[in-house]
Amino acid sequence: MASSSTPVRQPALIDFVRLFTPTRSADAYDRSALPIAGDDTAAKAQVAELLDALGYDAVDIGTLADSWRSEPGTPVCVQPYLPALPEGLTDEEMGRWFFEVPGVPVPADKVRE
Fold first, then answer.
1. How far apart are CA 10 and CA 73, in angstroms?
2. SS3 for 112?
3. Strand-pair partners of 52
4. How would DSSP label each residue in 25-83?
5. What is the DSSP letter of 9?
6. Max alpha carbon distance in the chain (Å)?
7. pLDDT tens digits, one per residue of 31-59
8. Residue 113: helix, strand or coil by DSSP?
9. What is the DSSP letter of 18?
10. Which residues is 5 bridged to in the sheet?
11. Residue 105: CB partners within 8 Å, gap ≥ 6?
12. Could you tell me the pTM of the whole model?
């Protein structure tokens, strides 16, 4: 029996260290959002439910063809979820900073930009 699946893209826009640090309840004023893209509305709704359970709002950025808006090098990719990197850190200090600093909340309005 062949199985069918419907792709929904939720790119890796947040690194593994901060994945769970900015999570908030659905009613939190500072809840972060992550973009999703796909061609199937029902499948996107399921992914949005998963993100909600993980503590994020989902921002529908369109179809799979529109998902380029969240590719590496775009304004929503990784950097918004990180605080500003202090200047003058040694490699060791930068590594410690990366693993110790919490994420920055990124609201849905910023993801939509």
1. 16
2. helix
3. none
4. -TT-TT--EEEEEES-HHHHHHHHHHHHHHT-EEEE--SGGGGGGGSTTSTTSSGGGSP
5. E
6. 58
7. 999 999 999 999 999 999 999 998 999 99
8. coil
9. T
10. none
11. 22, 24, 30, 31, 32
12. 0.82
